[in-house]
């Protein structure tokens, strides 16, 4: 649940919402900005803040944001976003410390065996629309030594739209050095020389 603030009355705090750290994967280099983090956070629920580590030199391969989520709604899985030049890209979400949730309806708080849809005779065939892949496998302190996220930069279109899980292609994080700026490639090359030549300090 959400943390109580000074002056809050415990009995008056709603129990239908909770705060989560959400990892946003498959964002292109150059689009790790606070503006984009806030837009994505408000799609997931209510944006609270972005992890300060996203702006350090210990960046991982995902953006980490704090979001208040409505427990009465299905978990969000993926989102299609549009770049400034009109090209679209898709991001996927992983939730840290995610409790029990239903693989059938995506609601937190019950398993599939107790899903109201199933108890009403809802026929279940094929792959479930939700699954364990929504749980984050990495925690907050597992970061790599690179610096990509900046406080301001390229934006994404506000014409965002969610897509159905059965219409999404498999998404794989991009790898390699393609699309990096000369400054970023020079930084990587300098790190390599230091590793390969112990005499370089």
UniProtKB/TrEMBL annotation:
<dbReference type="Pfam" id="PF14392">
    <property type="entry name" value="zf-CCHC_4"/>
</dbReference>
<feature type="region of interest" description="Disordered">
    <location>
        <begin position="152"/>
        <end position="201"/>
    </location>
</feature>
<protein>
    <recommendedName>
        <fullName>Zinc knuckle CX2CX4HX4C domain-containing protein</fullName>
    </recommendedName>
</protein>
<feature type="domain" description="Zinc knuckle CX2CX4HX4C">
    <location>
        <begin position="69"/>
        <end position="116"/>
    </location>
</feature>
<dbReference type="InterPro" id="IPR025836">
    <property type="entry name" value="Zn_knuckle_CX2CX4HX4C"/>
</dbReference>
<dbReference type="InterPro" id="IPR040256">
    <property type="entry name" value="At4g02000-like"/>
</dbReference>
<dbReference type="GO" id="GO:0003676">
    <property type="term" value="F:nucleic acid binding"/>
</dbReference>
<dbReference type="GO" id="GO:0008270">
    <property type="term" value="F:zinc ion binding"/>
</dbReference>
<dbReference type="InterPro" id="IPR036875">
    <property type="entry name" value="Znf_CCHC_sf"/>
</dbReference>
<feature type="compositionally biased region" description="Basic and acidic residues">
    <location>
        <begin position="182"/>
        <end position="201"/>
    </location>
</feature>
């Amino acid at each position: 649940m959400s943390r109580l603030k000074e002056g809050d009355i415990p009995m008056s705090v709603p129990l239908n919402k909770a705060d989560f750290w959400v990892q946003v994967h498959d964002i292109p280099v150059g689009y790790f900005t606070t503006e984009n983090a806030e837009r994505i956070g408000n799609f997931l629920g209510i944006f609270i803040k972005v992890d300060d580590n996203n702006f350090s030199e210990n960046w991982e391969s995902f953006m980490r944001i704090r979001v208040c989520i409505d427990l009465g709604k299905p978990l969000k899985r993926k989102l299609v976003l549009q770049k400034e030049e009109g090209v679209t890209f898709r991001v996927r979400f992983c939730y840290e410390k995610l409790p029990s949730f239903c693989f059938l309806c995506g609601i937190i708080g019950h398993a599939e065996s107790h899903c109201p849809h199933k108890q009403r005779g809802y026929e279940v065939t094929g792959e479930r629309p939700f699954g364990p892949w929504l749980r984050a496998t990495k925690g907050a302190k597992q970061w790599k030594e690179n610096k990509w996220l900046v406080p301001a930069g390229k934006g994404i279109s506000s014409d965002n739209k969610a897509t159905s899980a059965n219409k999404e292609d498999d998404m794989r994080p991009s790898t390699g050095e393609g699309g990096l700026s000369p400054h970023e490639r020079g930084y990587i090359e300098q790190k390599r020389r230091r590793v390969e030549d112990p005499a370089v300090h």
